[in-house]
Each structure stands twice: as structure tokens, then as C-alpha cells.
Amino acid sequence: DYLAQDARVDLINLSLASDLPSEILRDALIDARDQGTLPIAAAGNAGVASPAFPAAFPEAPAVAALGQLGQIPADALSADNHPRFLDRYGVGGWFLARFSNYGGWPSWGSAVAVAAPGVGIVSTVPDVDDRKESFAARSGTSMATPMTCGALATRLAADGDYRKLSRGRHRADRAEAILRAATLPIGTWPFFVGCGLPRAA
Fold first, then answer.
1. CA 19, 22, 25: angle at the middle one, nearest 5?
2. What is the reported pTM?
3. CA distances from 26 to 51, 110, 149 (A)
4. pLDDT 10s per residue in the chain (201 long)?
5. Of the chain's two ends, which shows fewer C-beta atoms within 10 Å, N or C?
């Protein structure tokens, strides 16, 4: 709520997921969109055909996680995230990660919107138990969501018409429309990956 009203941000990354809805959180999402801010949420990592909350709310487009064949060392912990079913594989070696939530019902506004890289993503990690590593490979829809936010931010920064819009729900709606339109189909069902892979340019 603070970010939407005072910091006037255009996008909020929500790398979190719960099985239970929260009306307080939903009210915050509605308020963010009313202020012109688009929240983008991780679909969740239970491998089920329904996004978790808050991605299940229509105010926050849900992001599923993708992997790509040949991009992860065979001995890496994230190498076992290949799906069991062939219909989760697309072109270019892309696949829906086994753990990723997917699906949902567009008529309810809760379907996965897009899917982004989320398997074996090198990221900073907290210093826990005197561990000396600053970086580690992580997997999850929480990795795919910031990828999506970054790609969309690049698009919005180059869109003069978007930047001229006054702050309000129409601005957030325009950002979501750009997100859904600026995607690369990867050759698998929209039920799994929504509109496809977000493109920065």
C-alpha cells in the first residue's frame, strides 16, 4: 500500500505464495492497481493446476516457472525438475518445471498469465550458518517472477505512451496488457504457460 501510494512504483514483485486467501492482501492489491501499480505474483511451487495466493487473485498476474533443456548441469540439485508429461515440453528446449503451479480459470481472473525462467537461477543468498557462498542456484516461481518484472520494466521504460498515463487503474491495466502481448509462444498449451515467455525487447 505504501509503495503504491507514496513511492509511485509501476510494478511490485510478489515472490510469495500461500494456499489460503487473505482479504487484507487482496485489498492491498486492489489499492495498488487503483494507484496505477501492477503487482505480479509467483504462481506457487506445489505442481498443481491452480495458482496459489496472491497469484490466484485477478489483480496480480500469475507467473509459472520454466526450465530449458541443456542449460542445467546434470549433477545440479535443480536438474530433476523436468516434467513427467510430454505436453509440458515446448520448442527451443523450454519446459514447464515439474514443481510449478499452472492452469487456473481465465473466467475467474486466476489463470497463469505468463511463464519465465525459474529453474537453476543463480541468485544472491543470505549468509546462514556461516555459509561463505554469496551466490547459489535456486529454483521456483519466486525466481520466475522477478524475471517477468524485469522484462516488463524494460518494455514500460521504452513505452512513451505508457509513461504519459496518469496514475490510476487504467495505467496498471495497460501494463498488464503489455505484459501479456509482449511474449514469445513456446509451443505448449496456454493452460500451462499462459501467453508464453515475457520478452524484454
1. 120
2. 0.92
3. 15, 13, 20
4. 555 556 689 999 999 999 999 999 999 999 999 999 999 999 999 999 999 999 999 999 999 999 999 887 666 667 789 888 899 999 999 999 999 999 976 655 568 999 999 999 988 877 776 667 788 888 999 999 999 999 999 999 999 999 999 999 999 999 999 999 999 999 999 999 999 999 998
5. C
